[in-house]
Amino acid sequence: MVSSKINQIYDSAREFFISFGYTKREYSIFLCGASSRNNKSLRAPIKDEIKSIRSNYNYLVYYPEDLFVELIYGHRRRDLLQLENLLARSVNAIAILVESAGAIAELGAFSNHEKLANKLIIIADSKYENDNSFINQGPIRYLKTKTKSKVKFFDICVENQAEMANFIVNSTREISQNYPIEKSVLNPIHAYRFYLALIYIFDPIEKSLLLKIIEKNEKRNPNDLDLIDTVETVISWFHTEGKIYTTPQGFSITGEGRKDLIESNTHKATYNILEFLRPARIEALNITLRKKYNDLPIHP
Predict the structure, then answer these.
(1) How far is CA 296 from CA 63, 231, 283, in A?
(2) Residue 42 sits in which domain range?
(3) What is the pTM (predicted TM-score) of this model?
(4) Do 157 and 229 share a domain, yes or no?
């Protein structure tokens, strides 16, 4: 069993970073389209345009294939269609720039998913707006008439990227009113700093131990793919962004990781975060040094 002290630390971190950690003014968007290696794609310019918008809201834009790089290219070789449930609970909206065969496939697949079908923002090419095509008569008609998703035809060019970016952010806020994100440990975006905090508090910590602590407290099965996928995603994300590094004893947080954790974009002031983290870290060290992990492996 996991010791009661560890349970207390975990519960406090969960409440601090997940239950109350984010404001309603932060929105996350998955931006789908042609490959990021395609120089003709407007996905990168639109992402930059969204990031440049100055307003009372903060928009976080992700490429799904980058966020889930370990799951897609790692030993398990998942694809985005296998990760639909993770996509659905992780972001406020999924914007699809219909500019490639892959984007058309995503449009068809995601429009058939019970939850994703109401969280889509479709930007289609105006030169095909009046075509009697399967795309128009199938997924686009379905989304416009049967769901809360947003569809708009544009002349897809650099000159219209600002208008497309504004359409995406305005639609995201509207969709979020009816379909908010899931605030749980199974949402890698919302729980990002929760996992970073656990690594900070128990530093260094092995992935197997991290999983065991979460499984016990969340009452999840050790083979729960939802939890495993989430942990794989955040760990890969932390490594890619230089927030953690791997030691023989497990994961340790970097200076950049500590800065991100403490100066996070939440409603909590920096001193409140430190006020929580410092005693939690001291308690974790006491548990480790006094070997109170019970049946869990110890790394002083």
Answers:
(1) 36, 19, 16
(2) 26-178
(3) 0.84
(4) no
